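Extended Data, panel c. Modelled sequence:
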Amino acid sequence: MRHNAHYAITDPRVVRDLIAENPWATIVSNNEASLVASHYPVLLDDRDAGLAIVTHVGRPDEKVHTFGTGEILVIVAGPHGYISPSWYSGQVAPVPTWNFSVAHCYGVPEVLDADENLRVLTRLVDHFEQHVERPVVLDQESGARLARGTVGIRLPITRFVCKVKMSQDKDPQSRQQVLEALRGSGHYSDPALAAEMQRALSAATP
């Protein structure tokens, strides 16, 4: 990721929140043949006070990624979107940009045994099904059938690079105008990004 200390985040709590609120991740590894990327839902490890995630991959992705042989990268991205320079005050140079929040998380994955994989799968289903009108619950038979086609992994995050770029470098008037545009009804309106930007700016205010 491009080095820019102005937007760098070192607080693991920010990364935890980013993962919890955006549980769709890109898993990247480097096997002997090439770079490999897959996309799966992730959850924070509820048994670890530190920073770790659990997920699963469909077979044979575990062989393609050669899990357990080296470090992998998991990318989690939050709200993001185009920021038009027309939204700035006259104090800012008219340069287009993109606001975003993202974390690059590194670690060596642990392959879970069958029982733990089933526990993680059940937790994933329960986590997402809780928001629907008639939630589906994995029973023993359906859970076992689903688990046979997957491999569970746990990733203790040993290091991360996190950037939250939300117009922190702009003057107060420009920030307010960007927020208003994102909350509006134009082509680039994005209430979720506006909420994330407001949170980032509030956290940066002493």
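The CA atoms of residues 60 and 150 lie 8 Å apart. This feature is highlighted in the accompanying rendering.
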